[in-house]
Design goal:
This protein is of the alpha+beta class and 70 residues long. The chain contains 3 helices and 2 strands; from the N terminus they run ααβαβ. Helix 3 (48-56) links the parallel strand 1 and strand 2.
Length: 70
């Protein structure tokens, strides 16, 4: 249920993916996001990376798109 999560199992998958904040934090550190940057994340999953990117690009724009409504 990680590719296109749906329903209760999809929500459970999202909870599992959001347990480890280290990976998205590490990736965002590699990107060296600045306060006025624009960021697009495709397939953000539970949105942890979006939250972290928004904190770094607080004067810019952060957008995430995902096929799954869950």
């Amino acid at each position: 249920m990680f590719c296109m999560p749906k329903g209760a199992l999809g929500r459970l998958g999202g909870q599992l993916m959001s347990q480890d904040r280290r990976l998205p934090a590490w990736v965002l550190d590699l990107l060296e996001i600045h306060p006025s940057d624009t960021v697009l994340e495709v397939g953000p999953g539970p949105g942890l990376g979006l939250q972290l990117a928004a904190a770094k690009a607080h004067q810019g724009r952060v957008t995430g798109i995902d096929r799954s409504e869950t």
